[in-house]
Design a protein that fits this description.
220 residues, four-stranded parallel beta sheet, 4 strands, Rossmann fold, single chain, alpha/beta
Length: 220
């Protein structure tokens, strides 16, 4: 439920020295079709960065065209398929969004407590709300279906041979740091960075820290 504003500070920081592009999933309602859209516009070789659902799509892209991914960055995401209880909850969110209650659905999908307390929380949630309204309830339903039906990618991570960075926010209750520790344990020689002052939206909550991490890791 985002647009390029999710990465606005990273675009500003990295684009002067690197070619940067932001992918879109369109109306796709499953990870496979979302990955196909990304692959269609993917350079011959690139660093692939995905946040939340985007991280799941990035893993699928890597599974399908590993030769085109030079490095992988996964932020606030999950390698496992959806638990049945969580999948059922998403059905209720979809109903609310289609009934004109998109704000309520988004508040349930990304609750306030999933972001770190402090002044950046309100600003990040405001940006998320604005992006969600721009994207709209139809795509909320499509992306919720994609989350419900996402594949387990543990095998994909075990086969990774490129440098991989995982970033999680300590306050993220959507995809916890424990989930990221599991992912890091699957990937040979993965780097895991935990941001103590962030939750589910680290690129918006602590953009300077994320930028510093990305610069150091990309140049290292």
């Amino acid at each position: 439920m985002s647009d390029a504003r999710l990465f606005r500070d990273q675009l500003d920081a990295l684009s002067p020295v690197r070619s940067v592009q932001v992918a879109t999933f369109g109306e796709a309602d499953n990870v496979r079709d979302m990955a196909a859209r990304v692959i269609a516009d993917l350079p011959e070789r690139s660093v692939l960065l995905g946040s939340s659902l985007g991280g799941m799509v990035a893993m699928e892209v890597l599974r399908r065209v590993p030769e085109r991914v030079a490095r992988l960055v996964l932020i606030a995401t999950d390698v496992l398929s959806e638990l049945p209880g969580v999948a059922a909850t998403r059905d209720l969110m979809i109903t609310r969004a289609r009934a004109g209650r998109l704000d309520d659905a988004m508040a349930e999908a990304v609750p306030m407590a999933a972001l770190a307390p402090g002044p950046s929380r309100a600003e990040a949630l405001d940006i998320l709300r604005e992006m969600a309204h721009r994207v709209g309830p139809t795509r909320f339903a499509a992306q919720s279906r994609a989350l419900q039906r996402r594949p387990d990618q543990q095998g994909t991570l075990r086969r990774i041979t490129v440098p991989t960075l995982l970033i999680c926010g300590a306050y993220d209750s959507v995809f916890t740091c424990r989930r990221h520790e599991v992912m890091a344990g699957l990937v040979p020689h993965a780097d895991l960075m935990t941001l103590d002052e962030a939750g589910h939206l680290p690129t918006l909550e602590v953009p300077v820290k994320v930028n510093d991490i990305l610069r150091g890791w990309l140049d290292g």
